[in-house]
Amino acid sequence: MARAKSPSRHALVDSALKLFWKRGYHRVSMGDLVRETGVSRGSLYSDFAGKEALFHACLDRYQETVVTPAFGVVETKGAGLAEVGQYLDNLLARNAAHPDANTGCLVLNTLAQITPQESDTMTRLSAHGRRLHKGLHQALWQENQKHQKLDEAEIEALARFTLISIQGLWAQSRGSSDSAALRQYCETLLSLLASRMGVEPLHGT
Amino acid sequence: MARAKSPSRHALVDSALKLFWKRGYHRVSMGDLVRETGVSRGSLYSDFAGKEALFHACLDRYQETVVTPAFGVVETKGAGLAEVGQYLDNLLARNAAHPDANTGCLVLNTLAQITPQESDTMTRLSAHGRRLHKGLHQALWQENQKHQKLDEAEIEALARFTLISIQGLWAQSRGSSDSAALRQYCETLLSLLASRMGVEPLHGT
DNA sequence: CTTGTTTTGGAATGATCGTTCCAATAACTT
DNA sequence: AAGTTATTGGAACGATCATTCCAAAACAAG
User: Which of B154, B163, B164 best probes binding to A when mutated, by most A CB atoms within 10 angstroms?
Assistant: First the structure.
């Protein structure tokens, strides 16, 4: 029944995702989406219930194609502080690669643009936060197994701290394309975490 | 020449500020502003060039009536780490006082909502960032005078780190009204700063 | 070719928005 | 009081938006 569309469904959503990411949900019109995706108005409305449904598909695809490749390293079984550092490096590299168009994180941008009323959207954003928190907690817990300096409550506090710090990093990465400052921030964050956990200072790039 | 308006100019801007703060620039219509400020459409357009000019007046007033009372303690001459802690406490108290309507920081919300094209607005937002950075740098420098553990470059890095962390805190404070988590974050941040600077752990409330 | 099904491009709809304009009203001055 | 100025409420305008609708075109299968 589902027949091949001119641009595949993934390609369609990817185009839409790119637009939403760059300009934000409210600043993308259906006309923009028609032009950018190359799919007609009629087809868009037959494939998706409306603009919001299409956006939700983009949020889901963002998890697959952006969050997982970047954050997966932290979520793997034996990950520790070094993997958190890898994630931050990846984040910095992405930023340095596109110094002009600084888009930040789609989830955090959206969080600042919607109201709590749009609860379907909000649900997805919360899930993203929980995903990151869980991954960070696991990595810090694993790291702590080696040195045993912190108890569970302290690990939890550090995980939360790291999560919020990363949110600040994303926020800062929008507008300010001073990648040296961002790098410095990541180094400071990692070095603070390391010293608190009793890890010898890491030798980053 | 300038005669007294029915609601004083400050009261007018305060009403508009409240709306912009709660809903964001793009989600406030001129109709909303007329209803909320109690000033007619005609008068609004004779007092301000348009919606954006009114918003700029609100951003300026936000600095006077919100940022200065909260952040001034860090900007005073002899301020150190303790005053940074006071600022964070103030921030947490503000958050706990309005657990329902969590508005975050007007400047950071706006930063996530506008595009770099709106450069007049962007200028004001950048100035806010510079103000906070300068105040934090000064306070950390002052604190470091007592212990002499860090050099200038490290102070600069720590100031930047603190600034971005505070941005993350503001971002987190929107939506999540889990004030215990926010408090925990502030405590972790302060304790990390203190240990890095060689300060005995502070006894917060 | 001839059906039957998708897809297209664009017109039409109804809503909201920022801004302008202006006659009616209120407030102040002399 | 009358005369002058400031303010009001709302109509009107032009623009943009999400959504709906549909005749024409493209395509697939028999």
Answer: B164
Q: Please answer whether residues B76 and B196 qualify as being in contact, where contact means their C-beta atoms are separated by less than 8 angstroms.
A: no
Put simply, the answer to whether A164 touches B171 (Cβ < 8 Å) is yes
Residue A183 included in any domain: yes
> The tokens of A61 are what?
């695809």
Give the tens place of pLDDT for each residue, B7-43. Answer: 678 999 999 999 999 999 999 999 999 999 999 999 9
Nucleotides of chain D touched by protein CB (<7 A)? 6-11, 16-23
Domain assignment of residue B162, yes or no: yes
Total domains in chain B come to 1
Q: Kindly report the nearest CA distance between residue B155 and chain A, in angstroms.
A: 11
Per-residue model confidence as pLDDT tens digits over A96-132: 888 777 788 999 999 888 887 889 999 999 999 999 9
Chain A 35-74, CB < 7 Å to strand C: 39-43, 46
In a domain, A35, yes or no: no
- Among B27, B189, B195, the residue with its CB nearest the CB of A161 is B189
DSSP state of B27: G
Show the domain range for B75.
9-197
A113: domain CATH number is 1.10.357
Q: Tell which residue, B12, B2, B61, has the closest CA to residue B36.
A: B12
Q: Which residues of B touch A174 (CB under 8 A)?
A: 111-112
A35-40's contacts with Cβ under 8 Å and 24+ in sequence apart are A37/A7, A37/A12, A38/A6, A38/A7, A39/A5, A39/A6, A39/A7, A39/A12
Closest CA to A167 of B125, B167, B129, B130: B167
Closest CA to B126 of B111, B142, B144: B111
Residues lower than pLDDT 70 in chain B: 1-7, 175, 201-205
CA angle, residues B35, B41, B43, in degrees to nearest 5: 115
Is the separation of the CB atoms in A74 and A139 below 8 Å? Answer: yes
The minimal CB distance from B164 to the residues A115, A122, A185 is found for: A185
In a domain, B203, yes or no: no
CATH code (residue B142): 1.10.357.10
| Nucleotide nearest to B32 in CA–C1' terms | C17
